[in-house]
Amino acid sequence: MALAKVMGIETEYGISSSDRHADPVVTSTLLVNAYAQALEHHIAWDFEDESPHRDARGVMRSSSRAPMVERHLANTVLTNGARFYVDHAHPEYSSPECRSPLEAVLYDVAGELIVRDAMEKAQSLYPDAPEIVVYKNNSDAKGQSYGCHENYLLDRSIPFDAVANAVIPHFVTRQIYCGAGKVGQELIDAISLDRYQISQRAEFFEAVIGLETTIKRPIVNTRDEPHADSSRFRRLHVIIGDANCSHVATFLKLSTTALILAMLEDRALPESIGQPLDPVHAVHVISQDPSLHATIATDQGDMTALEIQYQYLEAAEHYLEGADPSFLGGQNQATMALCRWREALEGLEADPESMATTIDWIAKRRLLRGFAERHHLAPTNPKLQVIDLQYHDLRPERSLALRAGLEQLIDPVAAAIATTQPPEETRAWFRGTALSRFPESVVTANWDSVVFDVGEDPLRRVPMMDPLRGGKAATEDIFAKASSAKHLIALLAQEKG
Amino acid sequence: MAEQEHKQRPKPAETEAESTQTPPASSVESDKIKADLDSLLDEIDEVLEGNAEEFVRNYVQKGGE
């Protein structure tokens, strides 16, 4: 039976300052620290188990360059179980581990609120400093890209080659409903509405499989860092995705990918799904063809992105007739996943414009075309690039995504609560609750452990090697009984004993 | 009760009555979409950053990930 698809999204936000000479590392640090200072706790991230160089293919490749782990930048853990920090020259929000696609959308939206709050806090802390503005996008249109990564829990027994084969056709084609849209092709300096692309990130992908994330970006990333018991789990780290403003697009991105991984684990994924013969070329071709008619060469002949997506959808519909849907968080979400997926494909097939309230690249293009027509603008007019950027602007008074009529899946009150409350069914509950209950006693935390100072030597480390353990049902009573961090550790030891 | 009566009302008559008074549904729908877009574009005119060239030039990021 498929493992529960514990999942989450990491978003690197674009950041700009009204002082254009400002160092983005400093600006990002200011932003994260403004938020961190207002918290009750002040704890650091624990890097002990970070190993981004470990390759899922088993051997180290001398040609691979893994990202460096930066230990000195602003870094904090939140009571909702998330990590909020500076990564390279960007503020990054890594959502807590979520138990279903809809929950992961909720915590992604909560991340937007946190970053927006950080902008406001920075402004009120330093009223005379240049204004900081944050964008939920993936490129600066000048050749620099920054990521939006997803993570999914996978059964370790599935060989990595099988994982790669299962997801490559999906990662090449899913952009047709989860692309965020972009004016032009920046790597060939052709910034024009006539060269509108479905995906922000597609043109930055240069390899099929690899360990890198900042250079030679691969469609399938091989980072083998499960942040969990490595004898039982994999964490599929997905780097080929755009940051979505549309809740529905985020839901589709997560639910379709989780479904495909579950089918793989349950050996229910048909071998007849078209495998692109040149996946990198195919990613580019599909992104550059908003008509959706372009075909790519596959082992089944020439196929459109829609045809490949229908193959996956039909397999998933068949699979869910018999499978227990608890891996996706239950029947409601499984039904919603299939309905939304079919709706998206049929809508795109019949008339892409009909998806303007759910798919980012179509919502954005509608604004661009309407604006260009109204003001008789040439396709290369910089105002169109401003619209592109401002679609992703997190300031409510400027954001165009907020004005584009996108369907909202997440209730604003629920999102506000999720900025401080952790998900209930994963270890994020323990991490977040430990922080809110004993803020003065948590020294460090990371994905798979929390370290407490109980007032005497040594520091106590509570390992959390199973992402599904440490949820509310298992630990609520212990937290209720615990009068101190020391007491909590004693109660946990009793429980284990 | 009221809902049941509504459901039982003969459909063709209703469609006919509507079609004599209002334009076809598809045209109403597309008019509405156009009106929505128009008000959206009015709003964009209000909130769009000024000095587009400079704004775009200044948006420079370092690569990430």
| Run of helices and strands of chain B | HHHH
Helix share, percent of chain A: 25-40%
Instruction: Give the low-confidence spans of chain B.
Output: 1-20
Q: Helices and strands of chain A: which structural class?
A: alpha+beta
* Total strand segments of chain B: 0
For the largest beta sheet of chain A, what order do the strands appear in spatially?
Answer: 4-5-6-1-8-11
How many strands, what sense, and barrel or not for the largest sheet of chain B? none
Mean residue pLDDT of chain A? 94
Integer-rounded radius of gyration of chain B: 24 Å
Shape of chain A: globular
How far is the first residue's CA from the last residue's CA of chain B? 61 Å
Beta-strand share of residues of chain A: 15-25%
Largest interface: A-B, 44 and 21 residues
As a percent range, the share of strand residues of chain B is under 5%
The tally of helices of chain B reads 4
Q: End-to-end span of chain A in angstroms?
A: 30 Å
What's the alpha carbon Rg of chain A, rounded to whole Å? 22 Å
Task: Explain what you see.
The complex is a heterodimer of chains A (497) and B (65). In chain A, the strands form 5 sheets. A 6-stranded antiparallel β-sheet of chain A has the order 4-5-6-1-8-11. Chain A folds into 2 domains: 410 residues, Creatine Kinase, Chain A, domain 2 (2-Layer Sandwich); 70 residues, no CATH class. Chain A has 14 helices and 16 strands. Chain A is globular, with a radius of gyration of 22 Å. Chain A starts with 6 loop residues before the first strand and ends with a helix. In chain A, a hairpin with a 5-residue loop joins strand 4 and strand 5. Chain A is of the alpha+beta class and 497 residues long. Chain B has 65 residues and is mostly helical. Helices cover 74% and strands 0% of the residues of chain B. The N terminus of chain B is likely disordered. At the A-B interface, strand 2, helix 9 and helix 10 of A face helix 3 and helix 4 of B.
